[in-house]
Design brief:
The chain is mostly helical. It is built from 20 helices and twelve strands. Helix 1 links the parallel strand 1 and strand 2. The N and C termini lie far apart (87 Å). It binds one RNA strand through helix 4, strand 7, helix 6, strand 12 and helix 11.
Length: 481
RNA sequence: GGCCCCUUCGUCUAAUCGGUUAGGACACCAGCCUUUCAAGCUGGCAGCAGGGGUUCGAAUCCCCUAGGGGUCACCA
């Protein structure tokens, strides 16, 4: 039995989006399920587009999700000598050659091929370039690239763990570039070298890489490397069925986080895209590890749907430990201006009791904060429809004043006592409890929807409740005159 | 356009070797519960892309068509 070693190898050219995160998750699950090693590698051989801040953001996102890696991060930019060494070997073996063609020269051929409706293949101009000419070109200041000498005939076969046998005709593959003119390796080359050196057993990545795979196999064979096993997982598509990109709005882990999604919800939702567990859909990371297998990963691209993710987030919101939830909610309350930068113990305790009550009816942390504003602000507008419904008759004012008077006299202000008081008052006044409850809710929260009224009053406290009832009564009386 | 991959309710998916009233989840609708809104519970709507084969029998195997996606860079 060989050791399972897998890697997640993003290029730091943007935020970690849900597709990349899901690939990371599957690698993680596969490694953990097999007792193997999960490696983080940063494929940063593109100097132009790679940005250090993306590396930090990437690791931050993975930590937030709880996808801890065992080795790395390894940077390809730190391993340049190795690629050069391997390329030199290929050159010495005549399995690769220098090519002096300029990109512009090649562009002409490309344009012509496109016009003719044919695929463009490098014509092999420098394949057998005489020594003299090469020297002359070099002397003229041309920086060559290195191309792999690929077979013209035969086929390259990949036995993919998920997709089965995939065959490519070698005649459709040209002598592709493995080292750029700036001496940096291309993805197909660097990736093969590292996967071999790191003893990667399974390359688990998105399907978009499937058509690159024969090139990598050719590289590995030229280098004399044994091949890893490949598993190409289905892509995650945007709602418009196209590949995920910035223009699709919230797709990065960081964005989901800032919208108030919980890591366990995002993780659970992502796991369901392209894979299905046993009986239960709601599963924790440890359970995913127990149940994960590549055999149950399907081949169909999935369109992600935030509606289901949001539902799931609501579920996890209600399940979460209240103290933890309060901690996670802090930035959202700060953003609404409800909490100071450094909230004290008292404020955090109050937050926790609010969160524990309000979370039952919201689906994200952002909604949670939004639904909690009236606990912190005395000034708010009354819901317009609510006013029409509950503040229209002048006797409503009387009702509210009677309620305020009753509550004020309560020696104990808790769920039971307030409810008993209200039910008693309704009876003496000869009205239904609802006739008392609805105007009260509007009076103390400005809203027609929210937590159970008695929870709400207790959370607000006797003083504020009574004050707001009287304020509302005055509002109704003013309105009437 | 060439090459490669894919195709079960609107969306995510199940249906181990071909035999199921094609199952579940989200969403939606209805009812129950109820001080509102949620949640919860119960029920409902909704799918094998199309056409040919093979077979006693096909969502499942084969072929064709259509559709979708990916990829064709000195990006990964």
């Amino acid at each position: 039995m060989f050791e399972v070693r897998v890697r997640f190898a993003p290029s730091p050219t943007g935020e970690l989006h849900i597709g990349g995160a899901r690939t990371a998750l599957f690698n993680y699950l596969f490694a953990r399920a097999a007792g193997g090693t999960f490696i983080l590698r940063i494929d940063d051989t593109d100097q132009e587009r790679s940005k250090p801040e993306y590396i930090d953001a990437l690791m931050e996102a993975m930590c937030w999700l709880g996808l801890d890696w065992d080795e790395g991060p390894y940077m390809q930019s730190q391993n340049l000598d190795e690629y050069n060494r391997q390329a030199a070997r290929l050159l010495a073996d005549n399995r690769a050659y220098h090519c002096y063609c300029l990109p512009e020269e090649l562009d002409e051929g490309r344009a012509a091929a496109r016009k003719a409706g044919k695929p463009y293949l490098y014509p092999g101009k420098c394949r057998e370039l005489p020594e003299e000419e090469a020297r002359a070109l070099l002397a003229a200041g041309r920086a060559p690239v290195i191309r792999l000498r690929t077979p013209d005939r035969g086929e390259t076969v990949i036995d993919d763990e998920i997709r089965g046998r995939v065959t490519f005709d070698n005649s459709t593959l040209d002598d592709f570039i493995i080292v750029k003119s700036n001496a940096l390796p291309t993805y197909n080359f660097a990736s093969v070298v590292d996967d071999y050196l790191m003893k990667i057993s399974h390359v688990i990545r998105a399907e978009e890489h499937l058509s690159n795979t024969p090139r990598q196999v050719l590289c590995a064979r030229a280098l004399g490397f044994t091949l890893p096993l490949y598993a190409h997982v289905p892509m995650i598509l945007a709602p418009d069925r196209s590949k995920l990109s910035k223009r699709h709005g919230a797709t990065s882990v960081e964005e989901f986080r800032s919208q108030g999604y919980l890591p366990e919800a995002l993780l659970n939702y992502m796991a369901l895209l392209g894979w299905s567990p046993g009986e239960e859909e709601i599963i924790s990371l440890p359970t995913m590890i127990e149940q994960f297998s590549l055999a149950r990963v399907n081949k169909t691209a999935a369109i992600y749907d935030t509606v289901k993710l949001t539902w799931m987030n609501g579920y996890y919101l209600r399940e979460a430990d209240p103290a933890r939830l309060a901690r996670l909610a802090v930035p959202f309350f700060q953003k609404e201006g409800l909490l100071p930068v450094n909230p004290g113990d008292h404020e955090l305790r109050y937050l926790q009791s609010i969160v524990a009550t309000v979370r039952d009816r919201v689906k994200t942390l952002a909604e949670l904060a939004d639904a909690s504003t009236y606990f912190y602000r005395d000034h708010f507008n009354y819901d317009v429809k609510g006013v029409q419904k509950h503040f229209q008759k002048e006797e409503s004012a009387t009702l509210l004043r009677r309620a305020a008077d009753t509550l004020r006299l309560l020696p104990v202000f808790d769920q039971e006592s307030t409810e008993a008081a209200y039910r008693g008052l309704a009876e003496t006044l000869g009205v239904s409890t609802g006739q008392l409850i609805h105007p009260t809710r509007l009076a103390i929260s400005g809203r027609t929807i929210g937590p159970g009224l008695f929870d709400l009053m207790v959370l607000l406290g006797k003083e504020k409740t009574v004050r707001r009832l009287e304020k509302a009564a005055a509002y109704i009386e003013n309105k009437a005159t």
